[in-house]
Amino acid sequence: MPPEHEALLILTREQFPELAVVPCEVELILKGASDRHFYRLKWQDGREPMILMVYTLARRDNPKFVPATLRLKKIGVHVPQIFASDDRRLCVWLEDLGRVDLQSLNDEPWEVRRPLYEATLREAAKFHAVGEDALSATDREELEPVFDEALYDWEQNYFLDHFVGGHLGRNLGTPEFANAHEALKKLRHHLAKLPRCLVHRDFQSQNVLVREGEAWLVDYQGLRLGRAEYDLASLIYDPYVSLSTGQREELLSYYAAHRRLDPAELRQVFYPCAAQRLMQALGAYGNLSRNLGKKQYLEHIPSAVANLREVCQKGKGLQEIEVFLKGAA
Predict the structure, then answer these.
(1) Looking at residue 262, what DSSP letter applies?
(2) Which CATH architecture has domain 103-325?
C-alpha cells in the first residue's frame, strides 16, 4: 500500500477506533477538476465502505462542504451523511453513495434516464424554495458570495479570457465585438436584479449520484444565493451528456409543474441563465485545458458551443453573444 494511503488509514483509525484492526483497501477516486482528493475505504469485514475527502484551502469554498451538507440535510435534500470531520487535517469522512452518476447513464434509453432527471429536479426544488428573505445574516455568512452583477461579470470575463481570447485566439478589442460586449453587460445587469434563492452552483450530471432510483447530490460546497434557472441550465444544458431539444423541454415543463410555476415565465429567465452558465463552462474548459494541462476537457467544447448557440437563438437579447463563437468547433 502506498505511504499516502497508509497515512490516511492512520488518520481514519484515529477517528474510528473500532476500525483499528479491520483490514482496509484504499481506492483513489479519479474524477473531475477539483483540487480535492477522494478515497474509497473498503473495509474487509463486510461493513459498508466510506469515502474520505481530503481538501485544501486553495479554494475558499472547500471548507464550506460540511456546513453546506448540514444545511441541505436540514432542508431534506438527499446528501451524504458525514461520519466525521477534521478541520485541522482538512479531512471529511462520508457515506459512500456508490459509483453511478447521471453522466454514466448517458447511453441508457430516455425511459430509464427521464425518471432519474425528474428525481434530480425534485431535489433541486427543495433548496430552490428557500428564498433570500428566509435566511438570516448568520446563514448567509456560511454561504459562498451571492450571484450579483460582479460575479456574473467575473464569469463572463472568465469566458472571454480563457475561451474566446485564449482557446480561440480572438482579439476582443476589435469593433466586431462591440455589440456583443453590450449584450453581456445587459445580461449581467438583468440577472443581478432578479430575486435569489439557494442554488447548488455546479448542478451537472457528474454531481448527481443515483442510488435505488433516487438522486443524491454532491459537490455542493459552492452553495449560495442565485437564480434557480442557473441550476436548471447546468443540468439541462450540461455538455457532459446528450439531451435532445424535446427532452430538455420535457424537463423544464416537469420542473415548472412540480413547483407550480408559469412555464413561459420560467423560460424567460432560463435562457439568459443558460447562456451565462455555458459561458462559464467554456471558460473553465479553456482554462483547464490550456493552463492546467487537463486536455480531456477539450472534448466537451463542441457540445458546449452547440448548446450556447441554441440558447442564444432561443433567448431574448442573446443573439449578439453568438459572435464570440465565430470559428469555434
Answers:
(1) -
(2) Alpha-Beta Complex (3.90)
